[in-house]
């Protein structure tokens, strides 16, 4: 299989057959770099364009962020306007809707945290992936999902739904797999072809069989509520079924620029694009 250089954050020496050989630029950093994209809530719908493409109303209800008007048709992910502050981010982000006493809560926003080092690669084109376990009945590892009460709180990272103060938003973080086996799935769903390096900031070691270390994504969703924990559930399988979906689409050169300016140089660029 051939690999195109557009897939890769470092320089590449392509070979005709087999894996491409990665050559790390001299100025590439092994320190963690980062940037954040803030995206507004668009709508909620019982759709999942990755798990159930072209099948409306086939899923539990998800809250969609970023790209406007996403439906069950994957083609609708391309070319639409965005609610993200970084206008070059045409990606769509979605997660199960939050319920309090059985009633849906409108989210505040989503923050997409991107992490990596000079060794991290940009994802392949039209990268589609699901993170977390929508069927889990027990607490998941905090390297996959965790709850919190906003940044700076004593309860900013816990495995259970916390009791937040009236001044704090309830938050949910979901970390996406960041190691890729190099295969391009026919159905466009990369979930079976990725694994996690086990570290929140994407600076761990990829498992055997997944040689491509991708820029790591953690999605953080906030809701302007502070309910009793026992009243909270997700539309999937309760409090422990945290998961999220990511459909990666970027304006030409936009992700490459952020990678070179922030990730590859080990620089924390904070929020980009407002």
Task: Give a topology summary.
Layout: E1 11-13, E2 21-23, E3 33-45, E4 62-66, E5 92-96, E6 98-100, E7 103-104, E8 109-116, E9 128-132, E10 145-148, E11 170-175, E12 179-180, E13 194-195, E14 212-213, E15 216-223, E16 232-234, E17 243-247, H1 254-263, E18 268-271
Parallel strand pairs: 3-18
Antiparallel strand pairs: 1-2, 3-4, 3-8, 4-5, 5-17, 6-7, 6-16, 8-15, 9-17, 10-11, 11-15, 12-13, 12-14
Give an overview in words:
This protein has 1 helix and 18 strands. It has 274 residues and is mainly β. The protein has one helix spanning 254-263; strands spanning 11-13, 21-23, 33-45, 62-66, 92-96, 98-100, 103-104, 109-116, 128-132, 145-148, 170-175, 179-180, 194-195, 212-213, 216-223, 232-234, 243-247, 268-271. The strands form 4 sheets. Strands 3, 4, 5, 8, 9, 10, 11, 15, 17 and 18 form a 10-stranded mixed sheet that branches. It is 4% helix and 30% strand.
What are its keywords?
274 residues, mainly beta, 1 helix, 4% helix, disordered N terminus
Largest sheet: 10 strands, mixed
How far is the first residue's CA from the last residue's CA? 39 Å
SSE string? EEEEEEEEEEEEEEEEEHE
Radius of gyration, rounded?
A: 18 Å
């Amino acid at each position: 299989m051939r690999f195109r250089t557009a897939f890769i954050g470092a320089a590449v020496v392509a070979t005709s057959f087999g894996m491409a050989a990665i050559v790390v630029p001299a100025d590439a950093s092994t320190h963690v770099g980062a940037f954040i994209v803030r995206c507004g809530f668009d709508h909620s719908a019982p759709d999942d364009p990755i798990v159930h493409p072209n099948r409306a109303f086939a899923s539990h209800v998800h809250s969609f962020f970023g790209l406007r008007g996403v439906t069950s048709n994957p083609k609708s992910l391309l070319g639409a306007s965005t609610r993200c502050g970084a206008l070059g981010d045409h990606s769509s982000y979605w997660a199960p809707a939050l319920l309090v006493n059985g009633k849906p809560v409108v989210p505040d926003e989503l923050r997409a945290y991107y992490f990596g080092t000079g060794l991290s690669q940009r994802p392949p084109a039209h990268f589609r992936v699901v993170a977390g376990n929508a069927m889990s009945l027990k607490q998941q590892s905090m390297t996959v999902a965790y709850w919190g009460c906003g940044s700076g709180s004593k309860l900013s990272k816990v495995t259970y739904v916390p009791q937040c103060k009236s001044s704090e938003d309830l938050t949910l973080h979901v970390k996406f797999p960041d190691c890729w086996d190099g295969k391009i799935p026919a159905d466009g769903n990369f979930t079976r072809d990725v694994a996690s390096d086990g570290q929140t900031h994407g600076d761990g070691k990829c498992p055997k069989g997944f040689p491509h270390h991708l820029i790591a994504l953690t999605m953080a969703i906030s809701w302007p509520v502070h309910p009793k924990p026992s009243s909270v559930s997700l539309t999937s399988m309760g409090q422990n079924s945290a998961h999220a979906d990511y459909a990666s689409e970027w304006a030409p050169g936009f992700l490459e620029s952020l990678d070179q300016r922030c990730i590859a140089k080990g620089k924390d660029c904070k929020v980009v694009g407002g």
